[in-house]
Amino acid sequence: MELRSEQRKFVDYAAKRVKENKYCVCEMPTAFGKTFSALMLAKKLIDEKIAQRVVIATSDNSLAKSIFLEAKNVDNLPDYVLGIGKNNYLDIKKLTFFMDTEISSEVLPLDKEVVDGAIKKLKEDFSYVLIEDFLNELDIVDADKREYIANNLALEKSNSESFKEYTIQITNYSFLFSKFMFDEKYAEVDGTVYIFDEIQELPNMAEMTLSSAFSLYSYYLQLKTIAKTINDDASAPKTLIKLLNEEVERVKSINEIMSDEKMAGKTLTANDIAIQRATNVLSKLFDQEKSKALRAKLKSYYKKTPFFQLGVFLNKFDDVKSTLSSKDIYISFSQERGFISFHTYSKDIKLKLADKFWSKIDRFVGITATALLTQDVHDLEIYKRMGINFSDIKLGDTVIKERKSKVCVIKSFEGILRPEQATYSITSNDFIEDEQKRFEYFADEILRGYDGKNTMVLVGGFDEVRLLAQKLESVKDRLVLAEQGRSVQNIIEGFKKSGGILIATRNYATGINLKGKTLERLFITKLPYPVYQTKKWILLKEKNPSFFWFEYNNEMVMTFRQAIGRLIRSPEDTGKIFLLDGKFNALSEGLKNRLIYFLEKIALKGAQL
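== DinG family ATP-dependent helicase YoaA ==
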């Protein structure tokens, strides 16, 4: 494969900035071919000795795998490797054994034929099976079950642990953060350059990495698994077995009491009384003498008879301690049965990125389709979003000096798509307060404008999915609904086969590739603001209301750009975008103009609604 003209401009521009010891972020539109361009940039940096090593990082394992597979299309690429952390690969032998156990029937009953089919499919183009891909393929979205699989069915050794000798390393942000932010002594070799794919996701991934969580149900499952292994050990102390079995029953009982099926899939951040009551129950559980005695005996047993699951389990106690002692705790309920989990929100993410991450990064190139959030081509907000600020940051006795001299303005590159491929229309109506009437209006506009074409409708949450489906009763046979407890990937795969009208939530605005006739109409019924009732936004609004609205609007604009980018994915695509949210007309002129500006980058103005 050869670089197109605009791709070559990117490679030359980015290489020049790296050579000048700069930070640079580049915006590439849909269908630009950013993965191939990033790999060609890595090749140029190595071939011309601008860098000794290139690390390409992205937001999740599936994207990292895609980059790794794309590398096969680059001729004479220096040696490269996928390194994402050992707990990300599925151990097929462990899975086979697990499927025959009692705990499998309780946690995750798996059909052998379905599992074999999933593994065969996932190994068609890659010798390993990523746990993330496996879980998505089987539609396992419950957080507790995903964690259990990751903890118990992962390869204990993999090729991802010894890749320092490779010139080009492909990884994910979480693995990168685990090296940089949790190991004070870690330092990358001189001459390393970083290419950050989907760079807008970097602070979100840092937030996830730095936050702690504790699931009581997951703890119970792990405890039961440990108990089974130790019970089968004839040499295990009888007192340990007795304590362990008693603890399993006690934790199971408490977990059932604290679960709430009516709250399944919901998060509770502001009810201090409920949160404190739940926290107190857990604190008492782990402070009891029997629990302390059990921990001591398990540690003693581990020294003599170590095994992977027990090591993971013992670390859970540290999770409990750090999570329950946090002042910024909140709780959530699992999607299936409403089992309770405790979470912390790590404040000052930007400061921590500045202190523990950017202080160790000398040169990088960031690539994304949504770097700019305003019409101003000199807008540098994305740097601030990532913790690269333009003034000194004081952290105790440490002062992180400004990096303004290293920052380049965002460079936008032309793509192969043209606005003539699509039209957009915006409602002229004010926001309709009555929910039933509002959704009747949405249904009328969808029926009027979808023209029998394959359509995606973006709403808010799952309650709105169900309500709109009721209003579209006349075309119920054509509806495909986003479902709580099902993966986005599998819903989309089903929609590709069936077509129709997909009613989806906000998280369908990103990471979906529906080319050609698989998607020709896009309706946005609700501006994609982030969920306000999360700890992050509550704390920010309490701390600085004006900055809250600034960040809140920016987050919406970024997601809006991602959402409208779902429609036109190739030069052959055509379609129509309909913005039906009447709240658009109440926005400030500046914010309205920003949204229209980005609409007109990908579509021509159509008829007013």
